[in-house]
């Protein structure tokens, strides 16, 4: 499903290159639940953003379902992202001017889902995440935990083939965090591929494989179950 070959990401400042990722070689099969771990500054979020097509590498190859992402233009990458990927951001990325309902509706509008089906899908996800009472509120009227729940609900509403989650439980209390991880586990059992970035050893146990980054390189890649 995902193949990264000799991937580099760096920032240039006149004559100096600061490397964020160096020589990343990684294969992820469809149906895997992979955790990316490593100390702060090891390149975890950058790697996740490149896999999610929200950022580009400077060098190397990225194949997604046999599509050479590194050769696609921005519009083609955006189309792939829209059709296959749900992204859960650490900082929510909800649209402030839209209600919870409208935030959930946005990805369905992008996919041109018909009105009746849209309403049904939103009703289902509001119920599933127990946020029906919040549907007419704006993000700034929600607690951090509820904003994160809405962000996750928005990512899964389109039934993506791949969910990318950047510290998905970072702003939730332990009960909410466990609920979200159990939801990811269920989605994984139903066939969704999941890649999460986390500092939490506990959250890592929900996956089947842990990729450890250190100084922008893959330090270890271990199967855990």
Describe the structure.
Helix 3 packs across helix 4 (115-128). This protein has a six-stranded mixed β-sheet with strand order 6-7-8-3-9-10, with helices on both faces. The chain has a four-stranded antiparallel β-sheet with strand order 2-1-4-5, covered by helices on one side. Helix content is 34%, strand content 29%. The protein has seven helices and ten strands. A hairpin with a 2-residue loop joins strand 1 and strand 2 (16-28). It has a domain at 2-93 and 160-223: Rossmann fold (3-Layer(aba) Sandwich). The chain has helices at residues 44-51, 74-84, 100-110, 115-128, 144-156, 174-189, 201-204; strands at 2-13, 16-28, 33-37, 59-64, 67-68, 85-88, 162-166, 193-197, 209-214, 217-223. The protein is α/β, with parallel strands linked by helices.
């Amino acid at each position: 499903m995902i193949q990264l070959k000799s991937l580099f990401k760096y920032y240039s400042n006149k004559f100096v290159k600061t490397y964020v990722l160096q020589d990343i070689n990684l294969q992820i099969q469809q149906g895997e639940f992979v955790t990316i771990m490593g100390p702060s500054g090891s390149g975890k979020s950058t790697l996740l953003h490149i896999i999610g097509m929200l950022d580009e590498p400077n060098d190397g190859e990225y194949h997604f379902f046999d599509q050479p992402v590194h050769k696609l233009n921005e519009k083609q990458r955006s189309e792939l992202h829209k059709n296959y990927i749900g992204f859960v951001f650490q900082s929510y990325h909800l649209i402030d001017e839209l209600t919870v309902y409208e935030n959930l509706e946005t990805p369905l509008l992008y996919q041109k889902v018909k009105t009746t089906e849209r309403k049904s899908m939103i009703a289902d996800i509001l119920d599933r995440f127990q946020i029906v009472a919040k549907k007419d509120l704006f993000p700034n009227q929600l607690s951090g935990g509820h904003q994160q729940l809405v962000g996750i609900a928005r990512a899964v509403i389109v039934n993506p083939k791949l969910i990318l989650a950047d510290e998905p439980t970072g702003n939730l209390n332990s009960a909410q965090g466990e609920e979200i991880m159990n939801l990811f586990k269920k989605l994984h059992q139903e066939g969704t591929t999941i890649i999460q970035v986390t500092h939490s050893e506990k959250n890592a146990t929900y996956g089947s494989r842990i990729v450890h980054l250190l100084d922008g390189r893959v330090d270890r890649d271990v199967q855990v179950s």
